Amino acid sequence: MQYTLSILVENQAGVLSKISGLFSRRGFNIDSLAVGVTNTPGVSRITIVANGDEYVVEQLEKQLNKLIPVIKVKRLNNDEFISRELILIKVHCAAAKRAEIIKTAEIMQAKIVDVASSCVTIEYCECANRVNTLIDLLKPYGIREIVRTGTVAIDRGTASVSV
Amino acid sequence: MISGAEIMVKCLEAEGVSVVFGYPGAAICPFYDKIYDSDIKHILVRQEQNAAHAASGYARCSGKPGVCVATSGPGATNLITGIATAYTDSIPMVAITGQVRSDLLGRDVFQEADITGACEPFVKHSYLVSKTEDLPRVFKEAFHIASTGRQGPVLIDIPMDIQTNEIEEFVYPDSVNIIGYKPNTKGHAIQVKRAIDAIKLSKRPLIVSGGGVLSSGVKLQFQDFALKTRIPVISTMMGIGVMPSENELYLGMLGTHGKAVANRALHEADLVIVCGARLGDRAVAAPHQMSENTTVIHIDIDPAEIGKNVKTEIPIVGDMRNVLDMLVENIGDYTVPEQWQETVKTWKKDLFKTPPVFDGYVEPRTLVGHLSAMFRSKAILVADVGQNQIWCANNFRIREGRFLTTGGMGTMGYSIPAAVGAKFARPDRDVIAICGDGSFQMGMNELATIAGNKLNIKIIIMRNSRLGMVRELQDKNYNGRHSATILQGDPDFLTIAEAYGIDCAEASSNEDAENIIKGIVDSDKPFILVCNVYPDTPSI
Question: What is the 3-state secondary structure (H, E, C) of B14-36?
Answer without folding.
Answer: HCCCCEEEECCCHHHHHHHHHHC
